[in-house]
## 1
Amino acid sequence: MEVSPEIFVEQFKKAGNPLGKIQQEAIESFKKAGIPHVKLEEFRHTNIVPAFAKNFSFEQKEHTYSAESLIKKLPVSSIENTVIIENGELSKVLPTASGIEVVSLNKNTSHQQFEKHFSKYADLKSDSLAALNTAMAKSCILVGIAANQQVEKPLNIVLISSATDQASFIPVRLLFLADKNSSTLVHLFQISASENGETLTSIVTEAFTDENARLEVEYIQQENNKSNTLSNTYVESAANSFFKIHTITLGGVLVRNKLRIRLNGQGSEAYFNGLYLPDDRMHVDNYTNVIHAVPNCTSNQTYRGVISDEAHGVFCGRIVVEQDAQKTQAYQSNKNILVGNHAMVNSKPQLEIYADDVKCTHGATTGRLDSNALFYLRARGINEQRARALLITAFASDVLQQTTDPALHQFLIEQITLKLSVNNLCK
Amino acid sequence: MMLEIRNLHALIEGREILKGLGLTVKPGEVHAIMGPNGSGKSTLASVIAGRENYEVTEGEILFNNENLLELAPEERAQKGIFLAFQYPVEIPGISNATFLKEAVNSIRKAKGEKPMDSKHFLQLMQEKMKLVNIDKTMTQRSVNEGFSGGEKKRNEIFQMAMLDPRLCILDETDSGLDIDALRIVANGVNAMRSKDRSFLVVTHYQRLLDYIVPDFVHVLYEGKIVKSGTKELALELEEKGYDWIKSHETVSQ
């Protein structure tokens, strides 16, 4: 099937710029750059073009599922503090903790913070997927945490994507604003409404952490095996702020997570952790970009991959330390385990350091499960399949142990155990 | 008969290590296998436990009249074979307690028993921890990760006590142990001696056998048992050294 930006341009014309004139600029950028192809360095190992080769539906259809019953499967402890977003539209906001604002915005709503931050961090010129999302979004969902608010319970955001017999293109646009001295933990779940719906979700998330703010996001990707996700996250951090994200990829057929942070205030910290367990023919790409723009900031990235069957994992971690960013500390580690004989991984660190007084380390390994460890477990009576699953879970614990919420941690262990129990790990 | 090994030949990476070994162990007996470095002691231990990089080319191993060589390592463990490793493996990310619970319940499942619940498991652990001075923090740490040499060996004996095997193979359990740790390990082993449990104690030195007194001592040399006797043989070896066996062998050949 021919893949052309034209179907998006036509759809764009029908929509009438719900988010204002920025959308006009965005569609122009997208038209110019087109859909990224494998000849571009950033997409060398990830061909996203097939995800676009669909006869997309752009309309919201009446759906037949119950969001409530889908949510019951998630570690969402109560009906409080939960936000449901269906096919990119804010559909339900259950009572949230004080100091948290969740609103759906467009050009007709007046919101000072929105006008100040919307589309200020995503790079429409160089990122045609961010441009496409900006052009196609019908609304922007803003999650604001007021100054000095220390939110104890996690805020659950559930993204549900659905499709009927026709594939859906779903733009999701999020804006997180953590005001000064605030602290929040967000659980972002991405799930499919059914086993069969074929979707392409384009998510652009912009986040701004103001001075001394702390924002932690645990992003769980668990869509069905026909779903494609292109997630582009742009974070800007002010002085002494803290941003941490865990990206846990358990489902989908093609998932690409681009994650960029600009550490733009002294003393700010960024932690990117990721765990991906693709199987079958799934493809997962984590592309990170940490920009140290000012002195005395810290970044730390820990990514772990377990690649089964004929799946393909990609990690590309780019760290840029600008000339002024003295006393930078930047760390990166990516380790992968290949389970199937046809599993594949590409891991590429990319360091660009223009300051001279910095500490930067990176390391990448790819291998198979340790045969000595495997024999040790088996010699204690644990069968091979289970021994392999235990070793894989142990390997993943580098990332899992850093998750903050015990209920979520337990949920992830269960989901991973379930996933590993149905895979043949002994091939 | 608990263990019967007949004419065992085994290779690793194409090189023959065991060259027609025979050994018989009855329930309740403690057999020591001694021998110089490279004689095949650890190979024997590994082959009985089922390590896959060894290839058995000839002979058989019967365990309670069942052919062991057809069984996977886990099946051997489930039937009651335990190998205390010479080099216990570090497994970051799995706590000792979790690992043991998996092992205990895997063995119970294979026997058609119900899994042990957490309460009984904890009770069992507390009881067995005393045997080899294991404290609670050690059970919560990752398996062998960052353990000292002595802690690793004590942990092996602790696992052995938890799994309650019929045949315990101790592969150079004394290596790297100071005298205090050696005593603790030996006391743990001695506490487990019973009329229906047998031990195969593989060691280079006689020292361990002062503490774990064997019923029989065998000398392994160039892949075969060349001399068998009672515990006095170990003392004789200690006095005369392995060169005595080597020259003896040369003469007899």
Note: Residues 96-110 of chain B form the longest helix (15 residues).
## 2
Amino acid sequence: MKRNTWLRSLTIVVIGALALFFNASLATGKQKEQVVVYTALDQVYSEPVLKHFEKTTGIRVRAVYDVEATKTIGLVNRIIAEKNHPQCDVFWNNEVINTIRLKNKGLLEPHASAQARYFPEIFRDKDHCWCGFAARARVIVYNTRLLRNKEKPNSIKNLLDKQWKDQACMALPLFGTTATQATALFAVWGHDQALAFFRDLKKNGVDLVDGNSVVRDRVADGTYLWGLTDTDDVYSGMKRGMPIDMLLPDQDGMGTLVIPNTVALIRHAPHPGPARKLIDFLLSEETEKMLARSGSGQIPLRPGIKPVPGIPSLEEIYQMKVDNEELARLMEDVLSLLDKELM
Amino acid sequence: MTPSKAFILGLSLVLFALIALAPPGMLLLNLFSFSPKISIWKWLLERQVHLLTLHSLNMALVATVTALALGLPVGLALGSKRKPLLFGIIFFLPLAIPPYLTASCWMGLLGRGGILPHLAHEWLGMDARSSWLGGAWGAGIVLGLSYFPVLTYMVISGMRRLDAHLEEAAMFALPENGILRKITLPLLFPQIGTGLLLVFLLAITNYAVPSLLGIRTFTVKIYTYFSVFQDIGGAVLLSLPLLLICLVCVLLLHHIMKGRVFFSLQQGEEMGGSLLRLLNSKLFKILACGPALFVTCTPILFLLFQTGSFLSLKIAVDQAKESILTSFVLALFASFCISIVAFVSGYALERTKWGKGGVTRSLFFFPFALPSVLLSIGVIFFWNRPGIVLVYQSLLIITILWGAKYLPLAQRVLADHIRQIPLEMEEIAFLSQLSWTKSLCRIVWPLARPGFLVAWAVTYIFCLSELGGTLLVIPPGADTMPVRLYNIMHYGSSSLLAALGLVLIMMTIIPMGLLVWCGKGIKGLRD
């Protein structure tokens, strides 16, 4: 009898917890104003911005954050998979090419935000399907202790130098900004030279790690002397006291790739009204300042906002000249090729 | 069969089929309608397949050997006599630590830039940048350290069912260690074999550990390929060699355990005196339990060390309280629902003629042998449809995914337990005009309750730490602890990671402790 009572109590507790939990879920689901955002920017940096939006507007934000290992691509493919019954309202991407891929597939809805006019034209879509803001640059991260008073790399091509054999790393170029950079190299150098470059990376012992933050960590702990990563990863590491610093690669050559965050409205979004409000908020001066001053040290694209010390401003960077539309067309073939070559 | 019996059993089997069989089944049935971007023949001939097979098998075999080295001696030591409950619980702690967290701890100690290579550099002048935990071997060892309690449990379960008379008879002809070698171990072989195969399956289908250590295995390849190209057909084709390996394991499992029970909660007769003396000798205990105790406590001590202070723990809990609540309630709910369906469908499997067939049993167990990544692709394909989109949008989709993976295991636990309940009791109830539902509730359920609680506990532990599949299906606005931990591993601080790791371990231990404390009166559960 005692045992039965105990088991009955357990059942009641479980069912009670369940009811409360799902009641809470349903209650939040029934809220009048909410917006679903898929964001590829690291959760630690994007979450405070979204929380601020929630607090300011009272609109509930339901976010899906991408994981480091499959940055951007996971969410893009999820949006593609859901195209017949979209779940996402706003796509906040941490780069631009995959946003254009979505546009080319007809999955984006134009939204001419009043805020967009403040951004340089190269970071805006002429059809108002997406707009760029708060950028990062692809930089060289190096260990300041191990490379003190020593020659430092200054070009992506240094990855192939015998001098740096087994001493450098980068993220697997199938995801996120590394995939964008790989596609850009195919566009700038041409197919054969770029393919040879990636084949030679393996020969020269360049380790392909799980993400850009892992590149930073491996360089900081001395596993590698240097690597390729994004400004935000280096900056967050520097703030945490890691012995690292950054260099802009190829400033006297093809230039450094600058990659903006992009925001877009999904076609047939379930909550278009709140989605437009969120896009306007993300493109506001306030958000650019927040992202610049956050631990990620993003590069503001609006004229007049200065980056934090340690981060170069847009004017200081000699940018790699690429046609984003062309990169979007190239990307799938490039990734397919690299998947075969590198995985 | 009465209509109510047919309805309830039928319903449970339909639920089982919808949750566990339909997602992977539909994937395979629709394989060529997906128009995969890769050709199966080209793929099978590529060098990459051979490398992936080599890495996957290497990792799983090393995990199995590690589990054997650690789990068998502990199983023999714990199974020989009733040990204090606390002692038994300590050796099941590795299951409470998700393998990727174990991997992270050991990487912090032995990996590149880890504490020990750093100390070796300081004191011995060795290369500080070397890794003592690299490659498929390293991943295999970590998985072995995580899963050895599975083998330990199987050995204990087997020892409880040993016929002590055989050992007593052998005492006349064999020395003490001869009894262990020639009588005890051969009698335990089915349980040891099953434990090893389960460890092998868990290791070869693991995604997080090889991904974290940068090992290219089938699961990592499937996840990467699906994430990059969203090509369902291609992902299924890529996984065919792995599916074949898993299928062989399931068939082997069935062959080894033919007619025997996987999981026993019954206390058999205590074994012979001299063998008991051998297994209970201090030397054996130290040799058997020492290494296991070391590898169990090291990650926990490392996490405590990394957390630093109680304040860090408090900050971590404050930051992640939504994830903690979601994970806890969801795992509690999922494991409860899975155990209920497993109980009724396990009964159907055990007490109906068709359920006794080897093919049926292997088919019903097969989803457990599938990698979570593939199962989650099946779940997306099967459940992301107009009309039932609410399921896909809600946390229910995670429950379904966990059900697809762990329902077969829970069902096997309960089916085995139901098999040990004499059929005559139900026949007497039937002759006494008791309806089937009443006989199920009043006779079978009370006797199967320990099995139910074990199935619930096992499912709860696995659900709480599931990562590979959850990453692909997690709905907007939701965040489970493993997903948060996995993200923090990439860009969070080590103290936050360690603190949340400890929280996750506590989320496992506290309910298990409560279960043991509340249920200690239930016969069989304590064992």
Note: The mean pLDDT of chain A is 87.
